[in-house]
Structure of Cytochrome P450:
Amino acid sequence: MTDPESLIFSIFTPQGRDNPHPAFAALRSNAPVYYHAGLDTYFLTRFTDCQAVLTDPAFRVPGRDWCDRALPGWREHPAAEFFYSSLLRTDGSEHARIRRLLNGALSARGVTALLPTVRAAADDLLDRFADATAHGGPADFQELVGYPLPIAVISHLIGVPPRDRVDFHRFGHDAGRLLEPVRTPEDWRRADEAVVALRSYFAGLVRERRARPADDLASALLAVRDVDDGRLSGEELVDTLLLVLVAGFETTAHLLGLAVHALLTHPGQLRLVAEEPGAAAGAVEETLRWDTPVRMTERLASEPAEVGGVPIPEGGNVTVVLTAANRDPARHPDPDAFAVRRAGGQVLSFSAGPHYCLGAALARAEAAELLRRMVRRFPRLALAGEPVRRASVSLRAFARLPLATAG
């Protein structure tokens, strides 16, 4: 199958969601910059083209102005009002102001300070996983470890006490429906309810921190006094904490499951990680390339441009297929092989340019720490049933990943 339209629509099928790589490879070979009139977007599948668009300030994220044209009535949805006003969907000085406030907490130094929390949380959750599998039966890795670990870490960073974290997984999952290119009325309903609930929670947390500051991100953002330093309004502060929470655990939870699954289906690579603790970081990086958690992102041309020899008009929508870019053989030789010792690779899994993911270093650190501990703790870890992929076009994740520790 080489017809570009057929290739595009094949990724929306269950088979295409499970394994989109042949379709993306064929599209990259036949039409690497492909305009689909029905979807009104240019699909990019080559690494160089994807990287060029992500790093070019002339390509901007779809924000509120775009919503006013393309999503009539969007302001009636709390979830849309939050999402399209957030750091993810703003550019220029507005984006830079909020990003600057978060840089310290998520910098390399900030991540190093969080490592004791990561290790303690990982050990505690692996204890629970050991208990759940002690009699030889399977347990769902995603439920017991994959989601709870990043929720615990990002909650600690923000200042959310353990007793308040119970519903975060469900709320984050529901809010994440906004990342899908097509949203049903049920998607909107659940996303709206999640955003309303989380806004209410963080408004309460902010009130508490105003009265009793602590050593956490909520208190640090409240302590910013000068407008010139980027001080946030009350609404901005609540929504920024909401975004840090959801963005800080959803993608990382996906990465954890994908990394464990990749290693268990490549026993030789698993042995390398078990024998060489330093190889865990390589396994994380290779997972990001080989099974990219966020499959695509979009940009708008703010002026006429050219990508891969194809003219893009002003206002043209561009879909950057990160999954395809990360398996481009021009950038990564033998791209379908999973190799934790792969050298010299650059991945676009956390985007690039002005919107490079602020939490990339923390996500990498969490995943590497978990893999080191997991392979040492459970040398006979094995798949114990058919994994269930999340039904998503934009996200690559496991809804369920049953594992046994006595395989």
Remarks:
- The chain is about 55% helix and 10% strand.
- The radius of gyration is 21 Å.
